Every structure is written in structure tokens, then in C-alpha cells.
Amino acid sequence: MKNQNHTIHHQMELTTIIGQISHDIRSPLCSLRMIIHSCTEIPDTQKKSLKAVCDRISDITNNLLRYTKPDHYSDALTGKNATSPTNVAHAITEIITEKRYEYTFRDIKITPKFNPNADIFINVDSQAFKRAMSNIINNAVDACENRAGEVVVSIATLDNKVLVTIEDNGKGMPESVREKILNHTPVTFGKANGHGIGYTQICDMLAKSNGTLQIQSRQNIGTKIMLTFLKSIVY
Ligand SMILES: Nc1ncnc2c1ncn2[C@@H]1O[C@H](COP(=O)(O)OP(=O)(O)OP(=O)(O)O)[C@@H](O)[C@H]1O
Ligand SMILES: [Mg+2]
Questions:
Q1: In this predicted model, what pLDDT tens digit does every residue of 51-74 receive, in sequence order?
Q2: Which of 136, 139, 169 maximizes ligand 1 atoms within 8 Å of its Cβ, making it the mutation to test the pocket?
Q3: What is the pTM of this model?
């Protein structure tokens, strides 16, 4: 009986991990397919994007390999990786590029409102940060449903803080969903294929970076997600 329980527990852990990983791999793979699909000859700029997407897939695959070791099961669930100074503008630009390919055939405009060359660093697990940005943009696009959507991403600094804002003009988030997210309770609402993994991961990533989350939303007007981090000093 004990063994059986252990096996069930083990299988549940594995299933959660596999769910998380397939969630991770979905977006970059989709982008890659789009790029390959749309290119007969690949110009340099697209080659660069293709390479960035491939790099990300390979990062995720490396993690997958690491997680197959029993000691890392719990790390896999919490996404526990080392934090290090990460250039926010570069990381977000990489994700926006990826998302533009992913949503080529959707009426969605993704607008960065920051200097892509700004040297602003935060102390974060860079892969977890990119995964978080990817999920927040996916959520924003989902919220736009069939309407023409715009997702505006901005970076601001104030004293020793860095504020990353992602704003959409989608259908808005119900207050009950907002409360659950802010109370760290996984929730999915109004989606055929939602799992509620997105904010679970975002909250873990923020906890490890001493970051904070704020959400403002108005029905049929849109949603604004604000992530705040401490600026990290790089010499
Ligand atoms: N920008 C947004 N506008 C409206 N609702 C949102 C927005 N972002 C999140 N939500 C709501 O919050 C819920 C939780 O988001 P979360 O990313 O954690 O899970 P999910 O998107 O449902 O599934 P998953 O990310 O695991 O694929 C969503 O199901 C959605 O109802
Ligand atoms: Mg999501």
C-alpha cells in the first residue's frame, strides 16, 4: 500500500512536471514552425530570430534533462534555478519577437515602449522571467479573443526599482480571478485549454526575486499587469 501510494505520488509529480514542460515548449515551437513555414530563403534578421527561438527551446530541453534526476523533481515544480543579473530589455525583446511570429495570423499588435538597448538589470532566473513574459503576453492575446488587440509592454525605473508593465485592451479579468491569482491560488477561467500554470510559475519567479505583482483590470476595457523588481547593479 505504501509503495502504491508512493508510485501514485511519483506519477503525479511526473505528470505535473511534464505538464509544465509541455507548457514551456509550446510557444517557442509554434514560433519555429511559423518561421520555417513562412521562409523560402531566410534573410539575416529572420535567421537571428530563428536562432533565438532555437536557443530557448534548447534551454528548456536542458532543463528537462536536469529534471529527470530525482533530486531535481521539486526544483522542476518550483522552477528553482539560480538567479543572476538579467538585462530586462533584451529578455523582453526576445519574447516579443517570438510572440510576433506566433501571432502572425492574429489581429494583434505587440508594442514595446522602451529602449531595446537600455542597460537595466534585475536579479532573476532569466528563463523563468522569459517564461513569465511569454505567459502574460499569451494571456493578453487570449483576452483579446476575436477583437483587434494591442498589447503594450513597457519598462520603467524609479529609484532602485524596475517596473515591467504589460497592458492589453482585452475583455478584462473578473475580480474573483484576480483575487485568486493574488492569493497564489491556481485558477483558469474562460479558456478551453487553460491550466492555471501561468500565474503559479509567475508567482514562484517573483518570490525568488523579491518581486511583486499588481493587477488592474476593467471589464471590456483591458488589463494591466505590473511586475516590480529591485534593480540589480552590474559593475
Ligand atoms: N490579461 C488578461 N485578461 C483577462 N484575463 C486574464 C488575463 N491574464 C490572465 N487572465 C485570467 O487569469 C487566468 C489565469 O491565468 P494563468 O496564466 O495562470 O492560467 P491560464 O492562462 O488559464 O492557463 P495556462 O497559463 O496554464 O495555459 C486565466 O485563465 C484568465 O481567466
Ligand atoms: Mg496563461
A1: 677 777 767 766 665 555 555 544
A2: 139
A3: 0.78
